[in-house]
Amino acid sequence: MTAVTDVLENMGRRAIGWVHRLGFACRFLLLTLRNSGMCLRRFSLVAREIYAAGVLSLVIILVSGLFVGMVLGLQGYDTLERYGSSSALGVLVALSLVRELGPVVAGLLFASRAGSAITAEIGLMKATEQLAAMEMMAVDPIARVIAPRFWAGVISMPLLAAMFSGMGVFGGYLVGVRLIGVDEGSFWSQMQAAVDFQEDILNGVIKSVVFGIAVTWIAVFEGYDAPPTAEGVSGATTRTVVTSSLSILALDFMLTAFMFRGA
Amino acid sequence: MMKRKGLDLWVGVFVAMGLGALLFLALKVGNLASFSAAQTYQVKANFDNIGGLKKRAPVKSAGVVVGRVEHIDFDTETYEATVALSIDSRYEFPKDSSAKILTAGLLGEQYIGLAAGGDPAKLKDGDKLKLTQSAVVLENLISQFLFSKAADGNSGGK
Q1: Residues of B (18-77) whose Cβ lies below 8 Å from A
Q2: Tens digit of each residue's pLDDT (9 = 90 or more) over B130-150
Q3: d(C-alpha A219, C-alpha A244), whole Å
Q4: Which residues of A are less than 8 Å from B29 in CB distance?
Q5: I want to staple B45 with a disulfide (CB 3.0 to 4.6 A). Which of A235, B68, B117, B129 is the partner?
Q6: How far apart, in whole angstroms, are the C-alpha atoms of residue B108 and residue B115?
Q7: pLDDT digit string (tens) for A90-148?
Q8: ipTM of predicted complex
């Protein structure tokens, strides 16, 4: 009997704790937004974080984009060739990259490359009481530490996703046109005829902005909320990657359902 | 001081690369360069049946894309589909031009084919195309074929 109530009690405690954290996360986001005036005026603060989150993620994003594009080229050619429409390879590569793979895969890579670093950094700052020290010096840690990282992530993510898509299209071109020998003219012209600026590219950019907000929000929150121990910081870093990956996929489904339900 | 400058340089390079990639997507991958900036004029056309025609489908004349389908409405008075076409103002068409709904290949997308007429007056913004031809609906075609076959079979039997 006590075992059953224990289990129920545990579940309830966990659920309540989860709702607590969600509420705190929302309050934290509002607080971050309200305190971002300072870092937008002193843009060098944000620039430093863009370097850490964006520039240092460049290599992994560009290389993965190239390989994803090349794989799309190979697989797409294999399937399209069966229907004798291999000239539509450009359309397949460009649409799948711009609409889905670009924002999603770039978001997943960004979460594991930059999101985890942000969480670990903030968590360690908290564990070594640097945040408390700032408060003692009347410097708001949210304005000085959290907000610049948040905005840097929000700015970097769409740029990284665009680079991923661009590199992917280039990879598809390399494999499709250079290696396999699909006609270059039809590769580009069919792509341009099928990819719409508003419908496809702009929606992809909107997706990547949303993912950028979600990933960085989760990263800074997990860091700020991490228990100030070595174990707590490592757990928070793991949670950042898991939660932001799942939310990217869930958000992607919702955004796709809104954006691309057919004309 | 030196480090600061190097960092700014890298951030600048990063942002420039990102914007460059967006530009590449917009101009080389997408169709921003080809149409949206051009001046267009709108023409309407009524069809009995538009089949699978969609918004933003191309309008072609002699195989050249001259415009796009702007929007598709249903006219509750005539029970016909009203299709608004925006045509690049570089291309002028005679007033009695006709519009057909065609299909690219057997499985391809549907588009509107404009055939020029002989009227010296040109189409203007807000004009209506009088001569239209509906989309070919495959089911109707098949049933017509079956009925004519059946009719042939009956007359042959007698």
Answers
A1: 18-22, 24-26, 28-32, 34, 36, 54-56, 58, 65
A2: 888 888 777 888 888 888 888
A3: 8
A4: 94, 98, 165-166, 169, 191-192, 195, 201
A5: B129
A6: 20
A7: 999 999 999 999 999 999 999 999 999 999 999 999 999 999 999 999 989 999 899 99
A8: 0.80
**Which amino acid, residue A125?**
M
Question: Domain spans of chain A?
Answer: 35-259
Q: Cα separation of A150 and A219, whole Å?
A: 9
CB B99 within 8 A of CB B45: yes
Alpha-carbon separation of residue B127 from A49, A100, A222, B95 (angstroms)? 56, 40, 61, 8
Q: How far from chain centre, in Å, is Cα B152? A: 39
Question: How much is the pTM?
Answer: 0.78
CA neighbor of A103 nearest in space, from A187, A183, A205: A205
Q: Which of chain A's residues have a Cβ under 8 Å away from the Cβ of B20?
A: 166
Hey, what are A103's tokens?
Answer: 């924002």
Distances (CA, A) of B95 to A262, B51, B63, B102, B114: 33, 25, 20, 21, 12
Backbone phi, psi, residue B64, to 5°: -95, 135
Q: How many CB pairs under 8 A join A and B?
A: 92
Helix axes of A102-110 and A58-82: crossing angle, nearest 10 degrees = 150
Residues of chain A numbered 39-58 and touching chain B (CB < 8 Å): 44, 47-48, 50-51, 54-55, 58
Using an 8 Å CB-CB cutoff, list chain B residues near A197. 26, 30-32, 36
